[in-house]
Amino acid sequence: MTTAASTPIPAKSRKARRPWTPSQIVLTLLGVAVSALFVAPIAAALLTSLKSETEAAAIPAHWMPQHWTGQAWKSLFQSGNITNWFVNSLVVSLCVTTLVLVVSALAAYGFARSEFRGKNVLMGVVMAGLMVSPAVLGVPLFTTVQQMGMVDTYWGMILPQCAPAAMVYILYKFFQGIPKELEEAAYIDGAGRWRVFFTIVVPLSRPSLAAVGIFTFIASWNNFLWPYMVTNNPDLMTMPNGIATVMNSYGIQWAQLMAGGLMAGLPLIIVFVFFQRQIVAGVAHTGLAGQ
User: Are 201 and 187 in contact (CB under 8 A)?
Assistant: First the structure.
């Protein structure tokens, strides 16, 4: 038995790396330019938050602080109950995400696999929600929440955000792509509809469920209008509302404003950095690419 197969290939005999083509160079430069375009506002906000208020408001503005200071961050924590606002945003966003996943998955699976009278009409009503702006529903929703006694409560902020038609449609299109033979084989083995849903459909739907959950969390975290309408209690305010209140009370302080914006956007940046693969995979598996 020879040992030629185990002998390492000399470096000189290895195939030389191909030089970059002009198209690759152009695409790389374009990617760097687009990345810099998106990173520049975050970098500007971070550097501005490390300036003094006088320097941050100076005209003309300059990128690098002449005197580095963390006074804006210190003032942000002292002037507002930012820890409580952060917890409120986290509780509301997690509850909304959980309820949206449950409601959207059950509704979408029912539309995709069940046959009942009025199914097309009901599906049309759900899809009609895609054509209605959330701002138009603000007054009717507030009247309903007020009549139910849920103003200035967590439930008043959470429940109206838990029926998004877009998420039902995304999961509906994905469930339609799952082969029915898998479910029929489980039915033959004696499994019920609920068992089939939780043991077959849900595991196969993890990419789409992850995408729906991430999109819902981001939308709920960034939601400013509805919590602003339904909450007047400072202890129940979310991050966007709380930071806006601080800015209105103490005037426009640019360094503090940048620090607050970064504090509010930090969880979203973390979510995207750690779950970008799930976001891309979820969009690729929703079935929307060919629609």
Answer: no
Structure tokens at 45: 């906000």
Residue 32 in tokens = 């760097």
Q: Please state, in angstroms and rounded to a whole number, the distance separating the CA atoms of residues 62 and 52.
A: 13
Model's pTM, two decimal places? 0.77
Are 171 and 105 in contact by the 8 Å Cβ rule? The answer is yes
SS3 per-residue string spanning 229-278: HHCCCHHHCCHHHHHHHHHHHHCCCHHHHHHHHHHHHHHHHHHHHHHHHH
Residues 13-50 have pLDDT tens digits of 455 677 888 888 888 999 899 988 988 888 888 888 88
How confident is the model over 165-189, as a mean pLDDT?
85
The DSSP-derived string for 119-180 is HHHHHHHHHHGGGS-TTTTHHHHHHHHHHTT-TTSHHHHHGGGS--HHHHHHHHHHHHHS-H
d(CA 149, CA 126) in angstroms, rounded, equals 27
> In angstroms, rounded to a whole number, what is the distance separating the alpha carbons of residues 241 and 257?
13
Q: Take residue 202 and report the two structure tokens written for it.
A: 């849900």
Phi-psi region of 149 (alpha: psi -120 to 50; beta: other; left: phi over 0): left
